[in-house]
Amino acid sequence: MLRLSMNKEYIKWKLKELRDNDLNIELKNMSDKNELIENAFGANLAFGTGGLRGILGAGTNRMNIYTVRKATFGLVSILKQGSCVAIAFDSRIKSELFAKEAARVLANCNMKVYLFNRVSPTPLLSFAVRELKCDAGIVITASHNPSDYNGYKVYDSKGCQINPDSADLILKHMGEIDIFKEIPDEMDFDLCLKNKLIIYIDDNVIHKYVDTVNKQAFNEGSKKLKIVYTPINGSGYECVSESIKKRGFNYFETVNEQKFPDGRFPTCPYPNPEMKQALELGIRDLIKTQSDILIATDPDCDRAGLAVRKKDEIRILNGNETGILLFDFICMMRREKKLMPEFPVAVKTIVTTDLAKKIAQNYDVHMIETLTGFKYIGDQIAILEEKGKEESFIFGFEESCGYLSGTYVRDKDAVNAVVLITDMADYYNDRGISILDRLDQLYEKYGYLMTYLGNYDYPGNEGLSKMKNIMTNLRNSSFLSKDYLHEPDMLHADVLKFDIDNIGIAIIRPSGTEPKIKIYYSSEGCDMIDAEKKINKLVAFMERMLN
Fold first, then answer.
1. Residue 392 sits in the same domain as residue 272
2. What is the CATH number of the domain that holds 115?
3. Which of 120, 126, 143, 522 is catalytic?
4. What's this model's pTM, rounded to 2 decimal places?
5. Catalytic: 143?
Protein backbone atom coordinates (compact mmCIF):
# COMPACT_ATOMS: atom_id res chain seq x y z
CA MET A 1 0.00 0.00 0.00
CA LEU A 2 1.51 3.33 -1.08
CA ARG A 3 1.64 6.22 1.34
CA LEU A 4 -0.85 8.93 0.33
CA SER A 5 1.82 11.63 0.03
CA MET A 6 3.97 9.38 -2.16
CA ASN A 7 1.10 8.55 -4.51
CA LYS A 8 0.07 12.23 -4.65
CA GLU A 9 3.59 13.24 -5.73
CA TYR A 10 3.65 10.51 -8.38
CA ILE A 11 0.30 11.69 -9.80
CA LYS A 12 1.52 15.31 -9.84
CA TRP A 13 4.53 14.28 -11.94
CA LYS A 14 2.46 12.02 -14.18
CA LEU A 15 -0.05 14.77 -15.04
CA LYS A 16 2.70 17.17 -16.06
CA GLU A 17 3.99 17.29 -19.62
CA LEU A 18 7.66 17.04 -18.68
CA ARG A 19 10.33 18.54 -20.95
CA ASP A 20 12.35 15.32 -20.94
CA ASN A 21 10.14 12.80 -22.73
CA ASP A 22 12.09 9.87 -21.30
CA LEU A 23 10.56 10.82 -17.94
CA ASN A 24 7.01 10.89 -19.37
CA ILE A 25 7.45 7.37 -20.74
CA GLU A 26 8.91 6.09 -17.48
CA LEU A 27 6.08 7.59 -15.39
CA LYS A 28 3.48 5.99 -17.67
CA ASN A 29 5.18 2.61 -17.29
CA MET A 30 5.11 2.94 -13.48
CA SER A 31 1.31 2.78 -13.29
CA ASP A 32 0.13 0.14 -10.82
CA LYS A 33 3.73 -0.84 -10.01
CA ASN A 34 3.95 0.15 -6.37
CA GLU A 35 7.54 -0.91 -5.86
CA LEU A 36 8.78 1.29 -8.73
CA ILE A 37 6.74 4.26 -7.48
CA GLU A 38 8.04 3.78 -3.95
CA ASN A 39 11.67 3.65 -5.06
CA ALA A 40 11.24 6.77 -7.23
CA PHE A 41 9.07 8.86 -4.88
CA GLY A 42 9.60 7.33 -1.43
CA ALA A 43 12.25 9.91 -0.53
CA ASN A 44 13.92 13.06 -1.79
CA LEU A 45 17.39 12.60 -3.26
CA ALA A 46 19.74 13.58 -0.43
CA PHE A 47 21.99 16.64 -0.82
CA GLY A 48 25.25 16.68 1.15
CA THR A 49 28.85 17.90 0.84
CA GLY A 50 29.16 15.60 -2.18
CA GLY A 51 26.02 17.17 -3.70
CA LEU A 52 23.48 14.83 -5.30
CA ARG A 53 24.10 11.33 -6.55
CA GLY A 54 21.49 8.83 -7.63
CA ILE A 55 19.95 6.63 -10.31
CA LEU A 56 18.72 8.35 -13.47
CA GLY A 57 14.97 8.51 -13.89
CA ALA A 58 11.68 10.12 -12.95
CA GLY A 59 10.89 10.99 -9.35
CA THR A 60 12.03 12.95 -6.35
CA ASN A 61 14.56 10.22 -5.47
CA ARG A 62 16.12 10.15 -8.94
CA MET A 63 18.54 12.26 -10.98
CA ASN A 64 16.62 14.23 -13.61
CA ILE A 65 16.37 17.81 -14.90
CA TYR A 66 13.92 18.69 -12.12
CA THR A 67 16.08 17.54 -9.21
CA VAL A 68 18.97 19.36 -10.91
CA ARG A 69 16.85 22.53 -11.20
CA LYS A 70 15.84 22.27 -7.53
CA ALA A 71 19.45 21.81 -6.35
CA THR A 72 20.60 24.73 -8.50
CA PHE A 73 17.91 27.02 -7.12
CA GLY A 74 18.99 25.89 -3.66
CA LEU A 75 22.54 26.95 -4.55
CA VAL A 76 21.24 30.34 -5.77
CA SER A 77 19.78 30.94 -2.31
CA ILE A 78 23.25 30.92 -0.68
CA LEU A 79 24.96 33.04 -3.36
CA LYS A 80 24.99 36.82 -3.62
CA GLN A 81 23.03 38.55 -6.36
CA GLY A 82 25.08 38.72 -9.56
CA SER A 83 27.42 35.87 -8.61
CA CYS A 84 29.43 33.97 -11.18
CA VAL A 85 29.40 30.14 -11.45
CA ALA A 86 31.51 27.72 -13.54
CA ILE A 87 29.95 24.44 -14.75
CA ALA A 88 31.52 21.25 -16.12
CA PHE A 89 30.15 17.83 -17.02
CA ASP A 90 31.53 14.37 -17.75
CA SER A 91 30.56 11.72 -20.30
CA ARG A 92 27.65 10.21 -18.39
CA ILE A 93 24.13 9.84 -19.78
CA LYS A 94 22.34 13.23 -19.65
CA SER A 95 25.37 15.00 -18.13
CA GLU A 96 25.38 17.72 -20.80
CA LEU A 97 21.59 18.14 -20.50
CA PHE A 98 21.87 18.56 -16.70
CA ALA A 99 24.75 21.02 -17.05
CA LYS A 100 22.79 23.19 -19.49
CA GLU A 101 19.71 23.03 -17.24
CA ALA A 102 21.75 24.17 -14.21
CA ALA A 103 23.27 26.96 -16.33
CA ARG A 104 19.81 28.05 -17.47
CA VAL A 105 18.46 28.23 -13.89
CA LEU A 106 21.41 30.37 -12.82
CA ALA A 107 21.10 32.64 -15.86
CA ASN A 108 17.37 33.11 -15.21
CA CYS A 109 18.36 34.20 -11.69
CA ASN A 110 20.61 36.90 -13.21
CA MET A 111 23.84 35.08 -12.51
CA LYS A 112 26.75 34.78 -14.91
CA VAL A 113 27.69 31.27 -15.98
CA TYR A 114 30.91 29.95 -17.47
CA LEU A 115 30.18 26.58 -19.10
CA PHE A 116 32.56 24.04 -20.64
CA ASN A 117 31.41 23.13 -24.16
CA ARG A 118 32.49 19.46 -23.94
CA VAL A 119 33.20 16.77 -21.37
CA SER A 120 35.79 17.94 -18.86
CA PRO A 121 37.60 16.49 -15.82
CA THR A 122 36.37 17.44 -12.36
CA PRO A 123 39.77 18.91 -11.34
CA LEU A 124 39.61 21.18 -14.41
CA LEU A 125 36.38 22.59 -12.97
CA SER A 126 38.14 23.29 -9.68
CA PHE A 127 40.92 25.03 -11.64
CA ALA A 128 38.42 27.06 -13.71
CA VAL A 129 36.61 28.30 -10.58
CA ARG A 130 39.90 29.73 -9.31
CA GLU A 131 41.16 30.92 -12.69
CA LEU A 132 37.93 32.71 -13.65
CA LYS A 133 37.42 34.04 -10.09
CA CYS A 134 34.00 32.44 -9.77
CA ASP A 135 31.90 32.37 -6.63
CA ALA A 136 31.00 28.71 -7.05
CA GLY A 137 31.30 25.74 -9.37
CA ILE A 138 29.12 22.81 -10.42
CA VAL A 139 30.20 19.54 -12.01
CA ILE A 140 27.74 16.96 -13.32
CA THR A 141 29.19 13.52 -12.56
CA ALA A 142 28.63 10.35 -10.59
CA SER A 143 32.36 9.68 -10.53
CA HIS A 144 32.98 5.91 -10.79
CA ASN A 145 29.40 4.70 -10.22
CA PRO A 146 27.67 2.42 -12.79
CA SER A 147 26.16 3.92 -15.94
CA ASP A 148 22.60 4.24 -14.56
CA TYR A 149 23.84 6.85 -12.05
CA ASN A 150 24.54 10.54 -12.36
CA GLY A 151 25.35 13.26 -9.84
CA TYR A 152 25.75 16.94 -9.09
CA LYS A 153 28.67 18.36 -7.07
CA VAL A 154 29.08 21.94 -5.84
CA TYR A 155 32.35 23.79 -5.29
CA ASP A 156 33.08 27.00 -3.39
CA SER A 157 35.07 30.03 -4.57
CA LYS A 158 38.34 28.34 -3.54
CA GLY A 159 37.66 25.39 -5.85
CA CYS A 160 36.94 23.07 -2.91
CA GLN A 161 33.80 21.00 -2.43
CA ILE A 162 31.37 22.90 -0.22
CA ASN A 163 31.49 22.52 3.56
CA PRO A 164 28.71 20.84 5.62
CA ASP A 165 27.15 24.18 6.66
CA SER A 166 26.70 25.28 3.03
CA ALA A 167 25.35 21.86 2.08
CA ASP A 168 22.82 22.01 4.94
CA LEU A 169 21.65 25.47 3.82
CA ILE A 170 21.16 24.28 0.23
CA LEU A 171 19.25 21.24 1.48
CA LYS A 172 17.06 23.47 3.68
CA HIS A 173 16.19 25.74 0.76
CA MET A 174 15.54 22.74 -1.50
CA GLY A 175 12.97 21.53 1.02
CA GLU A 176 11.08 24.82 0.66
CA ILE A 177 10.87 24.71 -3.15
CA ASP A 178 8.06 23.27 -5.25
CA ILE A 179 9.94 21.32 -7.92
CA PHE A 180 7.59 22.59 -10.67
CA LYS A 181 7.09 26.15 -9.43
CA GLU A 182 9.01 29.17 -8.12
CA ILE A 183 12.16 28.55 -10.17
CA PRO A 184 12.58 31.31 -12.81
CA ASP A 185 12.20 29.86 -16.29
CA GLU A 186 11.63 32.71 -18.78
CA MET A 187 14.70 32.35 -21.01
CA ASP A 188 15.69 29.19 -22.84
CA PHE A 189 19.32 28.14 -23.16
CA ASP A 190 19.96 29.79 -26.52
CA LEU A 191 18.54 33.11 -25.32
CA CYS A 192 20.78 32.94 -22.23
CA LEU A 193 23.74 32.44 -24.57
CA LYS A 194 22.63 35.35 -26.75
CA ASN A 195 22.32 37.62 -23.70
CA LYS A 196 25.80 36.48 -22.57
CA LEU A 197 24.49 35.24 -19.26
CA ILE A 198 25.99 31.90 -20.28
CA ILE A 199 29.48 32.00 -21.79
CA TYR A 200 31.41 29.00 -23.08
CA ILE A 201 34.82 28.64 -21.43
CA ASP A 202 37.76 29.42 -23.70
CA ASP A 203 40.13 26.55 -24.56
CA ASN A 204 42.99 28.66 -23.18
CA VAL A 205 41.76 27.72 -19.70
CA ILE A 206 42.20 24.03 -20.57
CA HIS A 207 45.71 24.57 -21.98
CA LYS A 208 46.72 26.64 -18.92
CA TYR A 209 45.47 23.87 -16.64
CA VAL A 210 47.51 21.22 -18.49
CA ASP A 211 50.62 23.41 -18.40
CA THR A 212 50.13 24.01 -14.67
CA VAL A 213 49.75 20.28 -14.01
CA ASN A 214 52.87 19.50 -16.06
CA LYS A 215 54.89 21.77 -13.79
CA GLN A 216 54.39 19.16 -11.06
CA ALA A 217 56.92 16.88 -12.80
CA PHE A 218 60.46 16.66 -11.40
CA ASN A 219 62.38 14.33 -13.67
CA GLU A 220 63.96 15.23 -17.01
CA GLY A 221 64.52 11.61 -17.95
CA SER A 222 64.94 9.75 -21.23
CA LYS A 223 61.17 9.45 -21.83
CA LYS A 224 61.70 5.86 -23.01
CA LEU A 225 58.89 4.68 -20.78
CA LYS A 226 56.13 2.81 -22.67
CA ILE A 227 52.66 3.83 -21.48
CA VAL A 228 49.17 2.41 -22.01
CA TYR A 229 46.31 4.67 -20.96
CA THR A 230 42.54 4.31 -20.70
CA PRO A 231 40.02 7.02 -19.77
CA ILE A 232 37.35 4.24 -19.47
CA ASN A 233 35.10 6.20 -21.88
CA GLY A 234 35.22 9.18 -19.53
CA SER A 235 36.50 12.75 -19.69
CA GLY A 236 40.24 12.21 -19.28
CA TYR A 237 41.58 11.64 -22.79
CA GLU A 238 41.98 15.23 -24.01
CA CYS A 239 43.89 16.59 -21.00
CA VAL A 240 45.93 13.44 -20.35
CA SER A 241 47.04 13.01 -23.96
CA GLU A 242 47.93 16.72 -24.23
CA SER A 243 49.97 16.46 -21.01
CA ILE A 244 51.83 13.34 -22.18
CA LYS A 245 52.55 14.84 -25.62
CA LYS A 246 53.86 18.13 -24.21
CA ARG A 247 56.21 16.28 -21.85
CA GLY A 248 57.82 14.36 -24.72
CA PHE A 249 56.74 10.75 -24.18
CA ASN A 250 56.72 8.97 -27.56
CA TYR A 251 55.47 5.54 -26.48
CA PHE A 252 51.85 6.27 -25.58
CA GLU A 253 48.94 3.97 -26.48
CA THR A 254 45.27 4.47 -25.64
CA VAL A 255 42.85 1.55 -25.27
CA ASN A 256 40.81 2.02 -28.44
CA GLU A 257 37.47 0.68 -27.14
CA GLN A 258 37.60 3.05 -24.15
CA LYS A 259 39.14 6.12 -25.79
CA PHE A 260 36.10 8.27 -26.53
CA PRO A 261 33.39 9.56 -24.14
CA ASP A 262 30.48 7.13 -23.79
CA GLY A 263 28.25 7.23 -20.72
CA ARG A 264 27.00 3.70 -21.29
CA PHE A 265 30.51 2.40 -20.46
CA PRO A 266 29.91 -0.52 -22.89
CA THR A 267 33.12 -2.40 -22.03
CA CYS A 268 32.99 -1.84 -18.30
CA PRO A 269 29.71 -1.69 -16.33
CA TYR A 270 31.48 -0.39 -13.21
CA PRO A 271 34.08 2.18 -14.43
CA ASN A 272 36.15 2.26 -11.25
CA PRO A 273 39.96 2.17 -11.77
CA GLU A 274 40.30 0.51 -8.35
CA MET A 275 38.65 -2.62 -9.78
CA LYS A 276 40.38 -5.27 -11.89
CA GLN A 277 37.44 -5.51 -14.31
CA ALA A 278 37.91 -1.87 -15.35
CA LEU A 279 41.55 -2.58 -16.25
CA GLU A 280 41.11 -5.79 -18.25
CA LEU A 281 41.30 -4.23 -21.73
CA GLY A 282 44.21 -2.05 -20.62
CA ILE A 283 46.10 -5.08 -19.33
CA ARG A 284 45.43 -6.81 -22.66
CA ASP A 285 47.11 -3.87 -24.45
CA LEU A 286 49.87 -3.70 -21.83
CA ILE A 287 50.85 -7.29 -22.68
CA LYS A 288 50.28 -6.89 -26.43
CA THR A 289 52.49 -3.78 -26.73
CA GLN A 290 55.00 -4.95 -24.10
CA SER A 291 54.61 -1.60 -22.39
CA ASP A 292 55.81 -0.76 -18.88
CA ILE A 293 52.70 0.65 -17.19
CA LEU A 294 48.95 0.99 -17.58
CA ILE A 295 47.15 4.02 -16.13
CA ALA A 296 43.36 4.22 -15.96
CA THR A 297 41.31 7.28 -15.01
CA ASP A 298 37.66 7.20 -13.94
CA PRO A 299 34.84 8.97 -15.85
CA ASP A 300 35.34 12.39 -14.26
CA CYS A 301 39.13 11.96 -14.22
CA ASP A 302 39.83 12.58 -10.56
CA ARG A 303 41.01 9.01 -9.71
CA ALA A 304 43.83 7.04 -11.30
CA GLY A 305 44.51 3.30 -11.17
CA LEU A 306 47.87 1.72 -12.00
CA ALA A 307 49.07 -1.65 -13.31
CA VAL A 308 52.77 -2.44 -13.84
CA ARG A 309 54.45 -5.00 -16.11
CA LYS A 310 57.77 -6.48 -15.03
CA LYS A 311 58.86 -9.08 -17.61
CA ASP A 312 55.98 -11.60 -17.55
CA GLU A 313 54.50 -10.33 -14.28
CA ILE A 314 51.48 -7.99 -14.31
CA ARG A 315 50.55 -6.44 -11.01
CA ILE A 316 47.67 -4.09 -10.23
CA LEU A 317 48.63 -1.68 -7.46
CA ASN A 318 46.03 -0.52 -4.99
CA GLY A 319 45.55 3.15 -4.10
CA ASN A 320 47.66 2.86 -0.96
CA GLU A 321 50.60 1.32 -2.82
CA THR A 322 50.55 3.95 -5.55
CA GLY A 323 50.17 6.63 -2.89
CA ILE A 324 53.21 5.62 -0.83
CA LEU A 325 55.30 5.24 -4.01
CA LEU A 326 54.37 8.76 -5.14
CA PHE A 327 54.83 10.26 -1.68
CA ASP A 328 58.27 8.72 -1.35
CA PHE A 329 59.23 9.84 -4.88
CA ILE A 330 58.06 13.43 -4.30
CA CYS A 331 59.99 13.65 -1.02
CA MET A 332 63.10 12.14 -2.61
CA MET A 333 62.97 14.49 -5.64
CA ARG A 334 62.32 17.58 -3.52
CA ARG A 335 65.23 16.72 -1.25
CA GLU A 336 67.51 15.88 -4.18
CA LYS A 337 66.66 19.10 -6.06
CA LYS A 338 66.58 21.21 -2.88
CA LEU A 339 62.90 22.01 -3.39
CA MET A 340 61.68 20.91 0.02
CA PRO A 341 59.90 23.80 1.78
CA GLU A 342 60.94 24.90 5.25
CA PHE A 343 57.89 23.30 6.86
CA PRO A 344 56.69 20.54 4.46
CA VAL A 345 53.15 19.25 4.95
CA ALA A 346 51.42 16.16 3.58
CA VAL A 347 47.79 15.19 4.14
CA LYS A 348 46.08 11.80 4.18
CA THR A 349 42.69 10.50 5.26
CA ILE A 350 42.16 8.34 8.36
CA VAL A 351 41.50 5.26 6.19
CA THR A 352 44.71 5.66 4.16
CA THR A 353 47.73 3.47 4.95
CA ASP A 354 49.79 4.36 8.03
CA LEU A 355 52.97 3.58 6.09
CA ALA A 356 52.64 7.17 4.86
CA LYS A 357 53.30 8.34 8.43
CA LYS A 358 56.59 6.42 8.50
CA ILE A 359 57.67 7.89 5.16
CA ALA A 360 56.76 11.38 6.39
CA GLN A 361 58.85 10.84 9.52
CA ASN A 362 61.82 9.69 7.43
CA TYR A 363 61.76 12.90 5.34
CA ASP A 364 60.81 15.25 8.24
CA VAL A 365 57.41 15.99 6.69
CA HIS A 366 54.50 16.95 8.92
CA MET A 367 51.59 14.55 8.27
CA ILE A 368 48.00 15.74 8.82
CA GLU A 369 45.12 13.24 9.01
CA THR A 370 41.59 14.13 7.92
CA LEU A 371 38.22 12.46 7.66
CA THR A 372 37.47 10.44 4.53
CA GLY A 373 36.84 12.61 1.48
CA PHE A 374 39.25 14.72 -0.53
CA LYS A 375 37.33 17.88 0.36
CA TYR A 376 38.96 17.66 3.78
CA ILE A 377 42.40 17.55 2.17
CA GLY A 378 41.38 20.59 0.10
CA ASP A 379 40.34 22.32 3.33
CA GLN A 380 43.84 21.79 4.77
CA ILE A 381 45.40 23.40 1.69
CA ALA A 382 43.02 26.35 2.11
CA ILE A 383 44.08 26.71 5.77
CA LEU A 384 47.74 26.79 4.73
CA GLU A 385 46.87 29.39 2.07
CA GLU A 386 45.15 31.60 4.65
CA LYS A 387 48.32 31.42 6.79
CA GLY A 388 50.51 32.38 3.83
CA LYS A 389 52.10 28.91 3.83
CA GLU A 390 50.53 27.47 0.69
CA GLU A 391 53.99 26.37 -0.58
CA SER A 392 54.29 24.03 2.45
CA PHE A 393 51.85 21.55 0.92
CA ILE A 394 53.69 18.83 -1.01
CA PHE A 395 51.21 15.95 -1.35
CA GLY A 396 47.74 14.75 -0.42
CA PHE A 397 46.26 11.33 -1.07
CA GLU A 398 43.57 8.85 -0.15
CA GLU A 399 43.40 5.10 -0.56
CA SER A 400 40.67 5.31 -3.24
CA CYS A 401 43.23 6.32 -5.90
CA GLY A 402 42.99 10.06 -5.28
CA TYR A 403 46.20 12.15 -5.46
CA LEU A 404 47.30 15.79 -5.59
CA SER A 405 50.77 17.37 -5.46
CA GLY A 406 49.95 21.03 -6.25
CA THR A 407 47.77 23.81 -4.90
CA TYR A 408 46.30 24.95 -8.23
CA VAL A 409 43.11 22.94 -7.46
CA ARG A 410 41.41 21.82 -4.25
CA ASP A 411 40.41 18.31 -5.28
CA LYS A 412 42.06 15.08 -6.28
CA ASP A 413 43.41 15.22 -9.81
CA ALA A 414 43.98 12.20 -12.04
CA VAL A 415 45.78 14.29 -14.70
CA ASN A 416 48.21 15.28 -11.95
CA ALA A 417 48.43 11.59 -10.96
CA VAL A 418 49.31 10.62 -14.56
CA VAL A 419 52.09 13.24 -14.57
CA LEU A 420 53.50 11.98 -11.26
CA ILE A 421 53.23 8.27 -12.09
CA THR A 422 54.88 8.61 -15.51
CA ASP A 423 57.54 10.89 -14.04
CA MET A 424 58.32 8.35 -11.31
CA ALA A 425 58.22 5.31 -13.60
CA ASP A 426 60.52 7.03 -16.14
CA TYR A 427 62.98 7.90 -13.35
CA TYR A 428 63.21 4.30 -12.11
CA ASN A 429 63.21 2.91 -15.67
CA ASP A 430 66.32 4.97 -16.47
CA ARG A 431 68.00 3.39 -13.42
CA GLY A 432 67.19 -0.16 -14.46
CA ILE A 433 64.52 -0.89 -11.87
CA SER A 434 60.74 -1.03 -12.01
CA ILE A 435 58.12 0.56 -9.79
CA LEU A 436 57.59 -2.90 -8.27
CA ASP A 437 61.26 -3.08 -7.23
CA ARG A 438 60.92 0.27 -5.48
CA LEU A 439 57.72 -0.85 -3.76
CA ASP A 440 59.51 -3.91 -2.39
CA GLN A 441 62.25 -1.62 -1.08
CA LEU A 442 59.66 0.52 0.72
CA TYR A 443 58.05 -2.52 2.32
CA GLU A 444 61.45 -3.79 3.47
CA LYS A 445 62.26 -0.40 4.99
CA TYR A 446 58.93 0.59 6.55
CA GLY A 447 57.14 -2.71 7.17
CA TYR A 448 54.78 -5.08 5.39
CA LEU A 449 51.37 -3.48 5.71
CA MET A 450 48.52 -5.02 3.73
CA THR A 451 45.27 -3.17 3.12
CA TYR A 452 41.90 -4.31 1.79
CA LEU A 453 38.62 -2.52 1.13
CA GLY A 454 35.42 -4.44 1.86
CA ASN A 455 32.20 -3.17 0.22
CA TYR A 456 28.92 -4.43 1.69
CA ASP A 457 25.80 -3.51 -0.34
CA TYR A 458 22.40 -2.67 1.15
CA PRO A 459 20.19 -1.60 -1.80
CA GLY A 460 16.78 0.08 -1.71
CA ASN A 461 15.00 2.07 0.97
CA GLU A 462 15.16 -0.96 3.32
CA GLY A 463 18.93 -0.98 2.92
CA LEU A 464 19.29 2.48 4.45
CA SER A 465 17.44 1.34 7.56
CA LYS A 466 19.57 -1.80 7.78
CA MET A 467 22.79 0.26 7.49
CA LYS A 468 21.68 2.49 10.37
CA ASN A 469 20.95 -0.55 12.54
CA ILE A 470 24.34 -2.09 11.77
CA MET A 471 26.18 1.12 12.71
CA THR A 472 24.15 1.35 15.97
CA ASN A 473 24.98 -2.25 16.88
CA LEU A 474 28.68 -1.79 16.10
CA ARG A 475 28.77 1.28 18.36
CA ASN A 476 27.76 -0.96 21.24
CA SER A 477 30.55 -3.47 20.59
CA SER A 478 33.22 -4.01 23.25
CA PHE A 479 35.84 -4.10 20.47
CA LEU A 480 35.19 -0.47 19.41
CA SER A 481 38.32 1.67 19.89
CA LYS A 482 37.22 5.02 18.40
CA ASP A 483 33.95 6.68 17.40
CA TYR A 484 34.55 9.69 15.15
CA LEU A 485 31.16 11.13 16.03
CA HIS A 486 32.82 12.09 19.30
CA GLU A 487 36.36 12.95 18.20
CA PRO A 488 37.26 16.41 19.58
CA ASP A 489 39.98 17.24 17.03
CA MET A 490 37.94 16.50 13.90
CA LEU A 491 34.63 17.22 12.28
CA HIS A 492 32.13 14.70 13.53
CA ALA A 493 31.49 11.79 11.18
CA ASP A 494 29.67 8.47 11.20
CA VAL A 495 32.91 6.48 11.25
CA LEU A 496 34.02 3.70 13.64
CA LYS A 497 37.48 2.28 14.29
CA PHE A 498 38.20 -1.23 15.57
CA ASP A 499 41.75 -2.08 16.70
CA ILE A 500 41.87 -5.86 17.13
CA ASP A 501 44.93 -6.97 19.14
CA ASN A 502 47.60 -8.78 17.10
CA ILE A 503 45.41 -8.84 13.98
CA GLY A 504 44.89 -5.33 12.59
CA ILE A 505 42.68 -2.28 12.24
CA ALA A 506 39.25 -1.95 10.65
CA ILE A 507 37.63 1.43 9.95
CA ILE A 508 33.94 1.39 9.08
CA ARG A 509 31.74 4.03 7.46
CA PRO A 510 28.55 4.17 5.40
CA SER A 511 29.25 5.40 1.88
CA GLY A 512 28.09 8.94 1.17
CA THR A 513 27.38 8.19 -2.49
CA GLU A 514 26.15 4.57 -2.66
CA PRO A 515 23.92 2.27 -0.55
CA LYS A 516 26.82 0.38 1.02
CA ILE A 517 28.99 0.13 4.10
CA LYS A 518 32.72 0.34 3.52
CA ILE A 519 35.28 -1.33 5.77
CA TYR A 520 38.95 -0.40 5.40
CA TYR A 521 41.14 -3.24 6.66
CA SER A 522 44.88 -3.04 7.41
CA SER A 523 47.26 -5.59 8.96
CA GLU A 524 51.03 -5.51 9.41
CA GLY A 525 53.16 -8.66 9.35
CA CYS A 526 56.79 -9.77 9.35
CA ASP A 527 56.39 -10.39 5.59
CA MET A 528 53.57 -10.21 3.04
CA ILE A 529 52.43 -13.79 3.67
CA ASP A 530 52.09 -13.06 7.38
CA ALA A 531 50.28 -9.75 6.67
CA GLU A 532 47.86 -11.55 4.33
CA LYS A 533 47.06 -14.22 6.95
CA LYS A 534 46.29 -11.51 9.51
CA ILE A 535 44.09 -9.50 7.19
CA ASN A 536 42.08 -12.60 6.25
CA LYS A 537 41.47 -13.21 9.98
CA LEU A 538 40.46 -9.57 10.41
CA VAL A 539 37.99 -9.68 7.50
CA ALA A 540 36.39 -12.89 8.83
CA PHE A 541 36.12 -11.38 12.33
CA MET A 542 34.46 -8.14 11.15
CA GLU A 543 32.08 -9.90 8.76
CA ARG A 544 30.83 -12.03 11.65
CA MET A 545 30.14 -8.80 13.53
CA LEU A 546 28.25 -7.36 10.53
CA ASN A 547 25.98 -10.40 10.42
1. no
2. 3.40.120.10
3. 143
4. 0.94
5. yes
